[in-house]
Amino acid sequence: MNLLELGWIFLTDPLNLSLSLGSILMALLVLWWSRNSGLSVAKRVFLIYAHIAFLIVPVALFAYASGCALPASDCTVKTALYAMPFILAGVITTAGVLGYFVMPRLYRRRMGARALRGPLARFVAQQADKHGLRAPSLHVIDSAVPQAFSFSSFKPAIFISAGMLDILSANEVKAVLLHELGHLAHRSSLLKFSATLAHAVSPVAKFASMHHALDREECEADRFATTIQGTHRHLESARRKVEGFLAFSE
Ligand SMILES: [Zn+2]
Asked: Which pTM was predicted?
Protein backbone atom coordinates (compact mmCIF):
# COMPACT_ATOMS: atom_id res chain seq x y z
CA MET A 1 0.00 0.00 0.00
CA ASN A 2 1.48 3.37 -0.90
CA LEU A 3 1.31 6.63 1.01
CA LEU A 4 -1.51 8.02 -1.13
CA GLU A 5 -3.73 5.02 -0.44
CA LEU A 6 -2.93 5.16 3.26
CA GLY A 7 -3.78 8.85 3.22
CA TRP A 8 -7.09 8.14 1.52
CA ILE A 9 -8.01 5.45 4.06
CA PHE A 10 -7.07 7.81 6.87
CA LEU A 11 -9.11 10.73 5.57
CA THR A 12 -12.23 8.73 4.74
CA ASP A 13 -12.57 7.83 8.42
CA PRO A 14 -14.83 10.58 9.84
CA LEU A 15 -13.15 10.53 13.25
CA ASN A 16 -9.64 10.92 11.79
CA LEU A 17 -10.82 13.62 9.43
CA SER A 18 -12.63 15.66 12.06
CA LEU A 19 -9.79 15.30 14.61
CA SER A 20 -7.18 16.32 12.04
CA LEU A 21 -9.14 19.26 10.71
CA GLY A 22 -10.03 20.38 14.24
CA SER A 23 -6.41 20.18 15.29
CA ILE A 24 -5.14 22.10 12.27
CA LEU A 25 -7.82 24.73 12.82
CA MET A 26 -6.72 25.07 16.44
CA ALA A 27 -3.07 25.31 15.36
CA LEU A 28 -3.92 28.18 13.02
CA LEU A 29 -6.09 29.86 15.63
CA VAL A 30 -3.41 29.86 18.35
CA LEU A 31 -0.77 30.96 15.86
CA TRP A 32 -2.94 33.90 14.84
CA TRP A 33 -3.59 34.65 18.50
CA SER A 34 0.14 34.49 19.35
CA ARG A 35 0.79 37.34 16.92
CA ASN A 36 -1.17 39.70 19.13
CA SER A 37 1.58 41.91 20.57
CA GLY A 38 -0.76 43.06 23.34
CA LEU A 39 -0.34 39.69 25.05
CA SER A 40 2.39 39.06 27.59
CA VAL A 41 5.57 37.32 26.44
CA ALA A 42 4.65 34.23 28.47
CA LYS A 43 1.27 33.97 26.75
CA ARG A 44 2.78 34.37 23.32
CA VAL A 45 5.42 31.73 23.98
CA PHE A 46 2.73 29.40 25.29
CA LEU A 47 0.60 29.93 22.21
CA ILE A 48 3.52 29.10 19.97
CA TYR A 49 4.08 25.81 21.81
CA ALA A 50 0.38 25.10 21.55
CA HIS A 51 0.59 25.71 17.85
CA ILE A 52 3.39 23.15 17.49
CA ALA A 53 1.50 20.57 19.54
CA PHE A 54 -1.69 20.99 17.52
CA LEU A 55 0.24 20.57 14.30
CA ILE A 56 1.78 17.31 15.46
CA VAL A 57 -1.56 15.69 16.38
CA PRO A 58 -2.69 14.90 12.79
CA VAL A 59 0.77 13.54 11.96
CA ALA A 60 0.73 11.24 14.99
CA LEU A 61 -2.84 10.16 14.20
CA PHE A 62 -1.91 9.38 10.62
CA ALA A 63 1.18 7.42 11.68
CA TYR A 64 -0.91 5.40 14.09
CA ALA A 65 -3.77 4.79 11.68
CA SER A 66 -1.36 3.80 8.91
CA GLY A 67 0.38 1.38 11.25
CA CYS A 68 -2.98 -0.34 11.66
CA ALA A 69 -3.45 -0.54 7.91
CA LEU A 70 -0.27 -2.55 7.41
CA PRO A 71 -1.02 -6.25 6.88
CA ALA A 72 1.35 -7.51 9.58
CA SER A 73 0.01 -5.38 12.42
CA ASP A 74 -2.77 -6.48 14.68
CA CYS A 75 -4.91 -3.43 15.28
CA THR A 76 -7.34 -4.32 17.98
CA VAL A 77 -8.90 -2.07 20.57
CA LYS A 78 -6.35 -3.40 23.05
CA THR A 79 -3.33 -2.33 21.00
CA ALA A 80 -5.00 1.01 20.42
CA LEU A 81 -5.34 1.51 24.16
CA TYR A 82 -1.71 0.51 24.70
CA ALA A 83 -0.54 2.74 21.90
CA MET A 84 -2.30 5.88 23.12
CA PRO A 85 0.12 6.79 25.94
CA PHE A 86 3.07 6.21 23.61
CA ILE A 87 1.55 8.39 20.92
CA LEU A 88 0.85 11.08 23.49
CA ALA A 89 4.39 10.81 24.87
CA GLY A 90 5.73 11.05 21.33
CA VAL A 91 3.70 14.17 20.65
CA ILE A 92 4.80 15.81 23.90
CA THR A 93 8.45 14.90 23.41
CA THR A 94 8.54 16.13 19.83
CA ALA A 95 6.81 19.37 20.78
CA GLY A 96 9.21 19.65 23.70
CA VAL A 97 12.39 19.15 21.71
CA LEU A 98 11.18 21.49 18.98
CA GLY A 99 10.02 24.08 21.47
CA TYR A 100 12.97 23.97 23.79
CA PHE A 101 15.71 24.09 21.20
CA VAL A 102 14.07 25.96 18.37
CA MET A 103 12.19 28.55 20.42
CA PRO A 104 15.13 30.72 21.56
CA ARG A 105 16.34 31.00 17.98
CA LEU A 106 12.83 31.73 16.72
CA TYR A 107 12.33 34.21 19.48
CA ARG A 108 15.50 36.11 18.69
CA ARG A 109 14.28 36.54 15.14
CA ARG A 110 10.63 37.29 15.91
CA MET A 111 11.35 39.89 18.55
CA GLY A 112 14.00 41.61 16.43
CA ALA A 113 16.59 40.95 19.13
CA ARG A 114 20.16 42.12 18.73
CA ALA A 115 23.20 41.06 20.72
CA LEU A 116 24.23 43.50 23.42
CA ARG A 117 27.94 43.99 23.96
CA GLY A 118 29.76 46.39 26.24
CA PRO A 119 29.76 46.80 30.03
CA LEU A 120 26.44 45.02 30.70
CA ALA A 121 27.45 41.96 28.68
CA ARG A 122 30.81 41.92 30.47
CA PHE A 123 29.02 42.19 33.82
CA VAL A 124 26.83 39.17 33.00
CA ALA A 125 29.83 37.16 31.74
CA GLN A 126 31.84 37.97 34.89
CA GLN A 127 28.99 37.01 37.22
CA ALA A 128 28.32 33.79 35.31
CA ASP A 129 31.99 32.87 35.51
CA LYS A 130 32.09 33.64 39.24
CA HIS A 131 29.23 31.24 39.88
CA GLY A 132 30.46 28.47 37.62
CA LEU A 133 27.78 29.05 34.99
CA ARG A 134 28.07 29.03 31.23
CA ALA A 135 28.07 32.70 30.20
CA PRO A 136 24.72 33.47 28.53
CA SER A 137 24.49 35.71 25.52
CA LEU A 138 22.71 38.99 26.15
CA HIS A 139 20.09 40.37 23.75
CA VAL A 140 18.05 43.54 23.57
CA ILE A 141 14.54 43.16 22.19
CA ASP A 142 12.99 46.06 20.37
CA SER A 143 10.00 46.68 22.65
CA ALA A 144 8.94 49.65 24.75
CA VAL A 145 7.32 47.30 27.29
CA PRO A 146 9.76 46.66 30.15
CA GLN A 147 10.40 42.93 30.19
CA ALA A 148 13.24 40.45 30.71
CA PHE A 149 13.42 36.69 30.39
CA SER A 150 15.93 33.91 29.81
CA PHE A 151 16.30 30.58 28.06
CA SER A 152 18.67 27.83 29.17
CA SER A 153 18.84 25.47 26.23
CA PHE A 154 22.01 24.61 24.29
CA LYS A 155 23.07 28.23 24.42
CA PRO A 156 21.81 30.08 27.48
CA ALA A 157 20.49 33.53 26.64
CA ILE A 158 19.09 36.51 28.50
CA PHE A 159 16.70 38.92 26.80
CA ILE A 160 15.97 42.43 28.03
CA SER A 161 13.75 44.96 26.30
CA ALA A 162 14.80 48.43 25.22
CA GLY A 163 11.92 49.72 27.37
CA MET A 164 13.44 48.07 30.44
CA LEU A 165 16.85 49.65 29.76
CA ASP A 166 15.12 53.01 29.34
CA ILE A 167 13.35 53.19 32.68
CA LEU A 168 15.87 51.50 35.00
CA SER A 169 19.07 52.80 36.56
CA ALA A 170 22.34 50.92 36.00
CA ASN A 171 22.07 49.09 39.34
CA GLU A 172 18.44 48.18 38.69
CA VAL A 173 19.32 46.75 35.28
CA LYS A 174 22.06 44.71 36.96
CA ALA A 175 19.53 43.45 39.53
CA VAL A 176 17.23 42.32 36.72
CA LEU A 177 20.09 40.63 34.84
CA LEU A 178 21.19 38.86 38.03
CA HIS A 179 17.61 37.70 38.60
CA GLU A 180 17.63 36.15 35.12
CA LEU A 181 21.08 34.67 35.76
CA GLY A 182 19.55 33.17 38.92
CA HIS A 183 16.94 31.50 36.74
CA LEU A 184 19.69 30.08 34.52
CA ALA A 185 21.57 28.88 37.61
CA HIS A 186 18.46 27.02 38.80
CA ARG A 187 17.53 26.02 35.27
CA SER A 188 14.08 27.35 35.96
CA SER A 189 13.47 28.16 32.33
CA LEU A 190 13.20 24.40 31.94
CA LEU A 191 10.50 24.40 34.61
CA LYS A 192 8.73 27.33 33.05
CA PHE A 193 9.04 25.57 29.76
CA SER A 194 7.57 22.35 31.14
CA ALA A 195 4.70 24.22 32.72
CA THR A 196 4.06 25.91 29.42
CA LEU A 197 4.22 22.66 27.54
CA ALA A 198 1.91 20.95 30.00
CA HIS A 199 -0.55 23.75 29.52
CA ALA A 200 -0.29 23.21 25.79
CA VAL A 201 -1.14 19.55 26.18
CA SER A 202 -3.74 19.89 28.89
CA PRO A 203 -5.12 23.30 29.87
CA VAL A 204 -6.06 22.08 33.33
CA ALA A 205 -2.88 20.12 34.09
CA LYS A 206 -2.18 20.81 37.73
CA PHE A 207 -2.43 24.51 37.09
CA ALA A 208 -2.27 25.52 40.74
CA SER A 209 0.70 23.40 41.76
CA MET A 210 2.71 24.59 38.78
CA HIS A 211 2.09 28.17 39.69
CA HIS A 212 3.32 27.36 43.14
CA ALA A 213 6.53 25.91 41.74
CA LEU A 214 7.01 28.95 39.50
CA ASP A 215 6.57 31.29 42.47
CA ARG A 216 9.32 29.42 44.27
CA GLU A 217 11.57 29.75 41.23
CA GLU A 218 10.98 33.51 41.24
CA CYS A 219 11.99 33.67 44.92
CA GLU A 220 15.16 31.68 44.20
CA ALA A 221 16.08 33.97 41.31
CA ASP A 222 15.43 37.02 43.52
CA ARG A 223 17.62 35.58 46.25
CA PHE A 224 20.44 34.97 43.76
CA ALA A 225 20.31 38.64 42.71
CA THR A 226 19.97 40.18 46.18
CA THR A 227 22.75 38.02 47.64
CA ILE A 228 25.20 39.18 44.97
CA GLN A 229 24.16 42.83 45.24
CA GLY A 230 24.03 42.64 49.03
CA THR A 231 20.72 44.54 49.04
CA HIS A 232 17.06 44.16 48.02
CA ARG A 233 16.91 47.84 47.11
CA HIS A 234 17.72 47.74 43.40
CA LEU A 235 15.57 44.73 42.61
CA GLU A 236 12.63 46.19 44.50
CA SER A 237 12.88 49.62 42.90
CA ALA A 238 13.19 47.95 39.48
CA ARG A 239 10.03 45.96 40.17
CA ARG A 240 8.18 49.09 41.33
CA LYS A 241 9.15 50.95 38.15
CA VAL A 242 8.04 48.09 35.91
CA GLU A 243 4.74 47.73 37.79
CA GLY A 244 4.26 51.49 37.59
CA PHE A 245 4.85 51.44 33.86
CA LEU A 246 2.44 48.53 33.29
CA ALA A 247 -0.25 50.10 35.50
CA PHE A 248 0.09 53.36 33.61
CA SER A 249 -0.04 51.78 30.16
CA GLU A 250 -3.13 49.67 30.85
ZN1 LIG B 1 11.86 35.63 37.08
From this structure: 0.57
